[in-house]
Amino acid sequence: MLTDAALRNLKPKSKIYKASDRDRMYVTVSRQCRHVPHDYRFDGRRETLTLGRYGPHGISLAMARALLLDARKSVLKGIPPRLKSNARNATFSIC
């Protein structure tokens, strides 16, 4: 399980890599930023929802986990979480 200290200490490498957390949430680390995606299944398809960008100008790990719970509740209700989050995540998707 990731912690804030562990996320801050992730260093960019020559290629984009992933650091796993729990509940199919992980962090992709690139040279520019750290994104927090979540993989889920909806209507039998695998989909990925980007919860936000980690860091001082993005979201915290606690906020990402809260957004993850909200997305999981949406899937249980039969609502694709990507429809609810397009406007919310638009500001976080740019590095």
Automatic annotation (TrEMBL):
Task: Give me any GO biological process, just one.
Answer: DNA integration
Query: Which sequence ranges are marked TM in the entry?
Result: none
Which InterPro entries does the record match to this protein? Integrase_DNA-bd_sf, Integrase_DNA_bind_dom, Phage_Integrase
Do the record's keywords include Hydrolase? no
Where does the Integrase DNA-binding domain start and stop, copy by copy? Answer: 2-84
Supply the alphabetized keyword list: DNA integration
Q: Which Pfam families match?
A: Arm-DNA-bind_3 (PF13356)
Keyword Signal appears in the UniProt entry: no
Q: Which family does it belong to?
A: Belongs to the 'phage' integrase family.
Q: Which protein are we looking at?
A: Integrase DNA-binding domain-containing protein
The taxonomic lineage of its organism, from the top, reads: Bacteria, Pseudomonadati, Pseudomonadota, Betaproteobacteria, Burkholderiales
